[in-house]
Structure formats: structure tokens, C-alpha cells
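For the sake of transparency, this paper describes our internal protein records without simplification. The remainder of this section carries one protein's record, kept here as part of the documentation:
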Amino acid sequence: MRWIPFVLVAALGVVLQATLMRLAVLGDAFPDLLVALLVAFSLGAEPAEGFVAGATLGLGRDLFTAEPFGLGLAAFAVLGWLIARRPGASAGRPVAHAALALTCSLAASVASVAALVAQGGLLPLGLAARRAGLSALSTALLAALVGALIWRNARWFGLRRRSEFAGV
């Protein structure tokens, strides 16, 4: 992975997430551009690169959320590592991006709710489930679009499709 283009896109993603994505409301939830970027960049990376990409995007998320600092970094780093361990053959397919983004968005939402409950916060379960579901669906749609745009220029970012048997 080429790190300078990644860092530029990640910084732009953090700014857009903190500003414009708040306007793209679906119900009372909004898509998570950083999850879409996490999926797009981790699919074509080695596991260590996926971990660093996830940690970078998670740190950016931590800067603009009210969650405990480090929660986004830890969750995104683990998710980036897990995604990067998948074979990269499906990296250019928008359906793969959408499915992984749906899963990652739900995992990040579960981590956020767990942190809130651990701090003694009260959150109606129905509201949390509805927001997490709507956010995950809108993030999946966004990830399909973002993934297609990034993978059109995969060589510019240093991304590559790995075979199913890479590293065996």
C-alpha cells in the first residue's frame, strides 16, 4: 500500500465524516464513511497494512466522537486486520465491499454500545438496534460506491488483488 495517498484520503474522509456525512441522514442514523474506507483499503492490503490502516482511520474517528478515546482505534485496527486476512480476489466487487461494510459497521456499533453501557449509560435497546441497522445499511451502500471508486485506481494506492492461496 502506498501510504501518502492513503493518508490524504483518510484525512479527507475524517473531515467529510465530521462535516458532510452528518447531513446524509437516513432515519436518525447516518453512514460511516470511515468504515467504507476501512473496507476499501484493507481488502487489498497485507494483514499488517490492514491493521495500520484501520488504526489510522480509527484514530481519526476517535477525534470527532464522544466515545472513549481509543475505542475506534482498537475496533478499526482489529477489523482492518481481519479484512486484510481475507483473499483479495473479490476486492473489486462492490457487493463484497457492501457485505464487509455492513458487518464492520455493526461490529463498530456493538463496540460503541458496549462502551456506553460499561460507563453506566442508559440506552434503549430498540433505539440502538434501529440506529445501528440503518447506519449499517447506509454504510454498506456507501462502501459499494467508495470501493468501486478506489479500486478503479487501485495501482495509484498500491492496492493489489491477492489470490486465495497467498501466503500458504
About this structure: The CA atoms of residues 82 and 90 lie 15 Å apart. The first helix runs from residue 3 to 18. Helices lie at 3-18, 33-42, 47-63, 71-84, 94-118, 125-152, 154-157. The two ends are 21 Å apart (CA to CA).
